Amino acid sequence: MYSSSASGGAANSLSGGRLYLYEVVGLRQSLETDKASYPIRSSGSVFITVPYNRMNEFMRRITRLGGRIVRIQPLNSDPEMNGNVILEQKAGGFRVETGQGNSANEEKKPMTQAKAKADVPVNIYRPNNPFIGRVISNEPLVKPGGIGICQHVKFDISGGDLRYLEGQSIGIIPPGVDKNGKPEKLRLYSIGSTRHGDDLDDKTVSLCVRQLEYKHPETGETVYGVCSTYICNLKPGDEVKITGPTGKEMLLPDDEDANIIMLATGTGIAPFRAYLWRMFKDGERALNPEYQFRGLAWLIFGVATTPNILYKEELEELQAKYPNNFRLTYAISREQKNAEGGKMYIQHRVAEHAAELWQLLQNEKTHTYICGLKGMEDGIDEAFTKEAQKFGVDWKEFQREMKKAGRWHVETY
Fold it and tell me: Taking the alpha carbons of 123, 125, 128, 130 in that order, is the dihedral positive or negative?
């Protein structure tokens, strides 16, 4: 989710007055999780405004909270204060060096950590200057008899410079004001289309959005999410404020021989639809001769009922066409039973296939992606912990090594 934290108290010196915008992923989300030993729970990007003279302090704090800085952008407009930033991780923190360009007219490069993936578009459009997209279509994804409302919404972005990669998100700013009378803030949604868009013409971006609905804990009144309801009710031709894209946590590796394990619940399918379309759709493969996927893609997808299997026909069509490269496993909680006779959730499927999944994880070409409800993570960890113990391996340590290697990707909420 987008947030902006202006850090006051900057020194009056030239260096103390510089401001930088940090894009951070993976921050723990509550006071309870603000403990060094607590498992990291990754989420979308968070944006923090930091003065120059407190950069090391914030870097240490972000690291302690499990976060990872994926981008640093200068906020000052004075070109004399917008030099390149070099980050070097050292024991106990980071070393920061700044270097000015050779000319005031020299183009300034984005400032990122050394290990950040190159050529990733980020924040082309910001909340104070969003792109105005137009709705092309808004189609229901839940079949008759299913639970709730979920829509596939396609936007025309041909009139601007918005571009994105599979695994990124965009922000949607709903109209109106919040309960405090201030303009509504943006909400982030994972992109469900490839970089070429559903029409393969580089002119669209698509979202998979479920209308948030819950009972108020005190009044019992049904409450609907502001932005999700807005999106689900959009009509073709409607104009929408779009920001982004954001995120580098969920990007696909370039390796055509990689193994991709995808664990999704509900609308967590969105980035995985983009992955699978890029891997297997005929039109995509024709557009991307440099990327012809040859590895194994395994999607384990958790939903409540069969009518709630989003993109069911398309997924099963890909499975039938590429049986040696795409494996599809459902966990349908209200229709299937787990080994103990209870409801079948995604963690139970992981436990069922733990031996196969564990063997895949031993391969350095295997990447695991988790997207959807945060509650599934503990069960997934439990399943892998039991399997790892059979081989005398500490799962948490093994998982940490995968994270360091960039092979364990999580975006949960």
Answer: negative
What token pair was written down for 118?
């190159």
Residue 239 known to be catalytic? no
| Residues 270 and 406 grouped into a single domain | yes
Q: Point out the catalytic residue in the list 189, 275, 330, 345.
A: 189
| 413 is known as an active-site residue | yes
Is the peptide bond prior to 217 cis by the omega test (within 30 degrees of 0)? no
Pick the last residue of a domain from 246, 273, 300: 246
Paired with 24 in beta bridges are 46, 69
Q: Are residues 276 and 325 in the same domain?
A: yes
Same domain, 305 and 395: yes
288: confidence class by pLDDT, cuts 50, 70, 90: very high
pLDDT higher than threshold 90 for residue 301? yes
Based on the residue annotation, tell me whether 230 is a catalytic residue of this protein.
no
CB 316 within 8 A of CB 324: no
363 is in which domain, residue-wise?
A: 259-412
* Percent of the chain with pLDDT strictly greater than 90: 68
Q: What is the 3-state secondary structure (H, E, C) of 215-254?
A: ECCCCCCEEECHHHHHHHCCCCCCEEEEEEEECCCCCCCC
d(C-alpha 140, C-alpha 69), whole Å? 37
- Residue 98, token pair as written in the block: 């700044």
The residue from 20, 371, 377, 387 that is catalytic is 371
Of the residues 190, 193, 228, 333, only one is catalytic, namely 190
What pTM does this model have?
A: 0.72
Active site residue 311: no
Say if residue 56's pLDDT is above 50: yes
| The two structure tokens encoding residue 229 | 């309801």
Nearest to 245 by CA among 132, 128, 162, 152: 162
| For range 216-228, the mean pLDDT | 91
Q: How many domains does the chain have?
A: 3
What would the 3-class secondary structure string for 126-192 be? Answer: ECCECEEEEEEEEEECCCCCCCCCEEEEEEECCCCCCCCCCCCEEEEECCCECCCCCECCCEEEEEC
**Residue 189 known to be catalytic:** yes
- Does residue 248 contact residue 120 with C-beta atoms inside 8 Å? yes
Nearest to 397 by CA among 406, 407, 387, 385: 385
